[in-house]
Amino acid sequence: PTAIPLEPVSDAKMREYKEDAIAAMEVTRELFQAADKGSSSNVVLSDDTVAQMLSALGAAGYTAVDYFGNMNVQNPQPLIDFGNAVNSGAEGEACYYVLHSDGTLHGNNLVYKDGVPSLTTVSVEWDDKGEPEVYSTGQYALTHLELTAKGWFICTRESGGSDWAVNGNAYTFLRLTPYDDTLRQLAEKYMGSQAYSENNLFTCTWSGSDFGQLDFNCLFPILYSRYYGTVPLTGSNMGYIAGFEKVPGSELYIVPYEQFQEVICSYVDIDVDTLQWLSDDNASYGGYYVLGTAQEYYNNITPKVPSPEVTDYWYNSDGSLTLKVDAVYPAYGTDCAFTHELTVMDTEDGFKYLSNYVYESENNIIPELVLRSERKNRIAAVE
C-alpha cells in the first residue's frame, strides 16, 4: 500500500514532546530509585512498584497506563475527549504515557489533522547517572483510530492492522472507561485468562439437551489443568505431567476412560454414554484421544485468541448465573468479535457449565479450532 504522507514534526514540537516526556519521567524518580530492581542486568520492577509509579503519574496529571494493561488508565479524560473529537471529524491532539516494568516511559503524542491521524513517540530511560534520557523517537501514520461505544481506544500504525500474523500487537487497545471489578472477577472465575484458547466451550452454542459442536477432546486439557491444579497441558509436557500413554508413531495421547469422564463430568453436566458418543475414543487403546498444542500447528508463533469481557450478569430462577460476554479481539482490532451468554451453576466444590449461547451475526469473528482438525487428521492416520 502507498504510504500516507505526513507533515514532519517541527524541531520545536519535537523538543516540546521530549521535554514533556522527561518531566513525566521525573515524577517517577524517587519511586524508581527506592525500588528493588533485582540483581540481573535487566531491571524488572514489581507489580506493586509499577502501580505506585503509575499512580504518581496520574496524581501529577498525566494520562498513563502500564504496559500490560493490568491497571485502569490514569486520567483518561483527555484521551476520551480526543477520541470523541476524531469520531466526529474534529481536529485535535492528546498524549498518553506507557510505563514499562523496567521503569522506561514511552510518550505517545497523538494528532488528528487534515483527516490523518498520526503518532509521534518519545521513549525515555534512566541513564548511567540516574538521569532521564530520550533514547528514541518516531513518527507514524495511523491507519485506524477510534473510540468505541464501550470506551475502548483502538489504533494501529501504518503497515500493521490486518498484517497481524507478523505482528501480534498490530493494534493498540486502551480501556478508557474502568472495567468494573465485579465483572472482571466473574470473567476470571468462570472463564479464566485462556478462555478461548484451543477449545470451543464459549465459541459455539450448546446446552445440556443439545451439546451442538462442543468438542470435549479439545476441552479436556484445559479442564484437566483446573481439576488437578497443574500448568496448562501441551503436546510437549502432557506425557510427564499427566502420565498419559502415547499412541505409537503419533503425537496423540490416550486418556483412560474413567479419568476423562471424571474430569469432564466435574465441570459439565453430561452422562458418560453421551460423552462417549460425542467424543473421539478408541476401545482397543482403552480411552479417549487427546492432542496437546504445539507451535507447528499454527501459521504464527502463538495462536491469536480474544479475551472475555463480561458486560452484564443475572441470576435465574433455578439459582444459576448467566454472564453476557463480549470477546475482545485485539488481533482483529475489535472490542466485540462476538457476544455470548454463558450459564453456570455454583456447586459445593466449585461450579458447572450449563449452557452457552452465541449471538448470531455476520460480523462474528470466531477463533479457529486448529487442534480439532489436527486431531481428526492424526486419528485418521492411525486407525
Characterise the protein shown here.
By secondary structure, this protein is of the alpha+beta class. The protein has helices at about 10-25, 30-35, 45-60, 75-85, 180-190, 215-230, 240, 255-265, 270-280, 370-380, and strands at about 65, 90-100, 105-115, 115-125, 130-145, 150-155, 170-175, 205, 245, 255, 280, 285-290, 305-315, 320-330, 340-345, 350-360. Strands 1-2-3-4-5-6-7 form a seven-stranded mixed beta sheet. A five-stranded antiparallel beta sheet has the order 8-16-15-14-13, covered by helices on one side. Strand 13 and strand 14 (about 320-330) form a beta hairpin. Helix 6 (about 215-230) packs across helix 8 (about 255-265). The two termini are about 50 Å apart. Mean pLDDT is about 90; it is low at about 160-170.
Topology:
Elements: H1 11-27, H2 29-34, H3 47-59, E1 64-66, H4 77-87, E2 92-99, E3 105-113, E4 116-126, E5 132-147, E6 152-157, E7 171-175, H5 181-190, E8 206-207, H6 216-228, H7 238-242, E9 245-246, E10 253-256, H8 257-267, H9 272-278, E11 281-282, E12 287-290, E13 307-315, E14 321-328, E15 339-347, E16 350-358, H10 370-382
Parallel strand pairs: 1-2
Antiparallel strand pairs: 2-3, 3-4, 4-5, 5-6, 6-7, 8-16, 9-10, 10-12, 11-12, 13-14, 14-15, 15-16
Helix pairs in contact: 6-8
Shape by Cα distribution? elongated
Determine the N-to-C terminus distance.
Answer: 48 Å
Query: Would you identify the regions where 5 or more consecutive residues have pLDDT less than 50?
Result: 160-168
SS class: alpha+beta
Relative strand content: 25-35%
Rg over CA atoms: 24 Å
- The arrangement of helices and strands along the chain is HHHEHEEEEEEHEHHEEHHEEEEEEH
Range of helix content: 25-40%
Quickly count the helices.
10
Biggest sheet details? 7 strands, mixed
Strand order of the largest sheet: 1-2-3-4-5-6-7
Average pLDDT figure: 90
Count the E strands.
16
